[in-house]
Amino acid sequence: MGIVCRMRQYSPDLTPPWKKSQPVPKVAAEPGLVVEEPGTGFCGAVIRCEAATVTLEDRFGKHRVFPLEPRGFLLEGRVVTLVRPSSAPARPTRTASGSVAVPGARARVARAGRIYVEGRHDAELVEKVWGDDLRIEGVVVEYLEGIDDLPSIVADFAPGSDARLGVLVDHLVPGSKESRIAEAVTSEYALVVGHPYIDVWEAVKPSSVGIESWPRVPHGQDWKTGVCRALGWPENTGAAWERILGSVRSYRDLEPELLGSVEHLIDFVTAPE
């Protein structure tokens, strides 16, 4: 009797099980929804949903962006297709700074008082997070391109009870050049506060930018260029700043030291005469 050999048949379909064609539910990618991307095992809450991508944040604060592909995620162990929420987004109840939003509020006529910051990046960051609040309060933010001449700048401004001046300084730590300059400003109607970071870049939380930490740059090197080099980014500080600023969506993306200083300045400049 001959022996009959049966060849085992293998399916040529190598599609992962979670992407096979069985019908699966479509789920709106609402903020806070916790899902897993099975290809990488990354599990996190939805924080943003664009036309073709969704951004997840895990419990450590790390962000990952994934395409909105059919059958692309697991929800409580079940395969689902995430879709962009169809309803119009609700009107925000808070501004980016965390203040109560005032829908339809008109900008106040600018006060005589001002807030000065060191550079353009500082000004753009303050505008992005506190812009709505500043417009309602009528506070204008200007940048100085450095504070070496701060005492004379304050003297020229001539702050008074009806025109207070607030100044935000980078790297304001005991014993620094910046602290000595700040101490030379003595007007009771001028307030100089700051944060401990070498540059305002560092005041953005690393997790928001998608890095583990801000690198240490050897003394003597240009700090921003050194950061780009250490992170493997192109050594284009303008493009790097656009990347960093684009990662900031609210006060939650900023370090507390910067938040407290800016809030203090706004309160000081808007204090009643």
Automatic annotation (TrEMBL):
Pfam family for this entry, one: DUF3097_N
InterPro entries documented for this protein: DUF3097_C, DUF3097_N
Location of the DUF3097 domain: 26-85, 114-270
Name by which UniProt lists this protein: DUF3097 domain-containing protein
Organism this protein belongs to: Streptomyces flaveus
